Amino acid sequence: MMELLYTANCGVLLKGEKAAIGFDLLHEVQAPPFSKVPEETFRYVLEKEKADVLFYSHIHPDHFGEEMNRAYAEKYHPAYIMPEHPMATLPLAADHGSFEIKNLDLRVEYCRLLHSGDQYKDVINYGFLIEFEGKTILSLGDASLTAPEIPHFLSGKTVDLAFINFPFYTLSSGRDAICNIIKPKNVIIQHLPFESDDRFAYRKAIEKRCYAPGMPPVLALLTETLQKVNL
Prior knowledge:
19% of the residues lie in helices and 28% in strands. It is α/β, with parallel strands linked by helices.
């Protein structure tokens, strides 16, 4: 059994029996139309939630915040797996690779994936495929709906749980990628703004699409900070 704790955007902490790992967990600067990690959420995480490894897909302000992470690292000293940055324990530079953290029973495969949006095509963005607590978990960062690297990255792989950014559900090309390329057994939808920040009504739009016939089961829509999900 795992427990998920949500902070904001793509920020999740997965807590298992042997370890706790996070994806894009802490970021203190708001990048509209998306949200930032609220100060009270950061205080809660800093006080109570120790992670062993933190994965960061890319260095955009809605995914990584240096101020919060430096305070967190000073207390808990997790490993930082991320693109090249002074905080990186393992700075990622190769287009593709894999490694194990044996004492945590963690196997990691990573791949550089095209960031969504033409204006961000040169941003270094990594996807992670992680074997953790008996499940294969996929996190794509802000990969394009049709990133050409995804089919090769996932070829022959079974994805038990995929964290999917909500725009994948808003276009037929994204829904096709979910069903025919990613093919996850279960999905958690992320990167939705909080209600107070949702000026484009993304939350309302996605609620109808994510449960459409033929789509994989959605275990949760991550919509509220400090939301918890048992997996």
